[in-house]
Amino acid sequence: MVCALGIEGSANKIGIGIIRDGEVLANVRRTYITPPGEGFLPKETAKHHREAILVLVKASLKEAQLEPKDLDVICYTKGPGMAPPLLVGAIVARTLSLLWDIPLLGVNHCIGHIEMGRLITGAQNPIVLYVSGGNTQVIAYSNQRYRIFGETIDIAVGNCLDRFARIIKLSNDPSPGYNIEQLAKLSSRYIKLPYVVKGMDVSFSGILSYIEDLAEPGRRQNKRKKPQEEEITNYCQADLCYSLQETIFAMLVEITERAMAHCGSNEVLIVGGVGCNERLQEMMRIMCEERGGKLFATDERYCIDNGLMIAHAGAEMFRSGTRMPLEEAFVTQRFRTDEVLVSWRED
Ligand code: FE2
Q1: Is 346 within the bounds of a domain?
Q2: Residue 3 CA, ligand 1 centroid: distance in Å
Q3: From ligand 1's centre to the CA of 274, what distance in Å?
Q4: Is 178 part of a structural domain of the chain?
Q5: Residue 321's domain spans which residues?
Q6: Distance between Cα 220 and ligand 1 center (Å)
Q7: Which of 51, 140, 230, 268 has the fewest CB atoms within 10 Å, i.e. the most exposed one?
Q8: If you measure from the C-alpha of residue 175 to the centroid of ligand 1, how many angstroms do you get, rounded to a whole number?
Q9: Is the pLDDT of residue 219 over 90?
Q10: Per-residue pLDDT at 217
Q11: CA dist list (Å): 297 to 21, 112, 187, 304
Q12: How far is the CA of 309 from the centre of ligand 1 (A)?
């Protein structure tokens, strides 16, 4: 039996989870929410995490009704992510490991999402779409690696949504993406936007610039070709939110479908914060069903960054014999999904 505590703080959420052999014992989280029009910056986010982390560690042990001595391993997010908030989690994990004399493991954040999604949904060997504020990847398992089949070549899909929400001054509470989704429901008027799929990869930065220009005509000094004046005045924010979602989600569905065809897979698992979006889930479900496949998705407790996913992936690593010396307990902003040897899977 492996009982693991996981610490996640790679972006604007700080979360602690405790899991024992796949049984969820605690999952507590706080989100750093900035005012409308503002993103979260590394230094301020780290300050938020520092102020919350010890309270959350205590709350998780209380929720799980456990003592530190009941834990077999302490896991933390090693990367990828923003360095200052990542360091908060790593330093607390190292300290608790030494204080309580419990082994320590650094976990890849993306692997955490994948393993948590597989556990919660029961998907066996799915094509994984990992979509969040910092990541956009289509992943498939092969030969002890989670291999990246397609990814963004510039900004993440969630970053595109977050930045557009900032331009139109939407609230960041509970998240900018959630508020775009609600606004999009008010429209069914599609405004044509660039659609940028390059082989198995996608690009969002040009789409963002284009739609920012529609939302705020004259925003840029050196203006490129602009839509007609009367067209601009007819757009409303809901139309733009709707059109942005339809375009970028269609791009994601396209590359996911191609990965399914290539691998001969009939399962898709969506993970990451953008994975909560019900319109993305609906579009992906339609594609899956047309192919005779099945979509697996989770709710916000598990698809938004959380400590539990780090605990679970760490527990799987620990169970399969992975150990980490204390001097390797650092963080790294760049840590690709396919760098990790998936020692806990044998298929
Ligand atoms: Fe994430």
Answers
A1: no
A2: 22
A3: 9
A4: yes
A5: 3-114+304-339
A6: 32
A7: 230
A8: 14
A9: no
A10: 76
A11: 21, 15, 25, 12
A12: 10
Distance from the CA of 271 to the center of ligand 1, in angstroms? 8
CA of residue 237 to ligand 1 center, whole Å: 27
- Whether 74 is covered by a domain: the verdict is yes
Co-location of 247 and 104 in the same domain:
no
CATH number at residue 49: 3.30.420.40
CA–centroid distance, 81 to ligand 1, in Å, is 9
The length of the chain in residues reads: 347
As a whole number, mean pLDDT of residues 103-110 equals 98
- Quick: pLDDT tens for 267-320: 999 999 999 999 999 999 999 999 999 999 999 999 999 999 999 999 999 999
Q: Within this chain, do residues 38 and 135 fall inside the same structural domain, yes or no?
A: no
Ligand 1 centroid to 25 CA: how many Å? 21
Cα 326 off chain centre by: 27
Interval 170-179: pLDDT, tens: 999 999 999 9
Mean residue pLDDT of the chain comes to 95
Q: Comparing C-alpha atoms, which of 103, 94, 16 is closest to residue 318?
A: 103
Q: Averaged over 309-338, what is the pLDDT? A: 97
Neighbours of 277 (CB within 10 A): 25
- Same domain for 285 and 208: yes
Joined tokens for residue 131? 């979509």
Gap between the Cα atoms of 38 and 169, Å rounded? 9
The answer to the question of residue 231 being in a domain is yes
Separation of 226 CA from ligand 1 center, angstroms?
A: 35
pTM listed for this prediction: 0.94
Query: What pLDDT is attached to residue 228?
Result: 52
Quote the ligand 1 centre to 325 CA distance (angstroms). 25
For residue 53, the CA-to-ligand 1 centroid distance in Å is 18
Cis peptide before 174 (omega within 30 of 0): yes
295 near 288, Cβ under 8 Å? yes
pLDDT above 90: residue 216: no
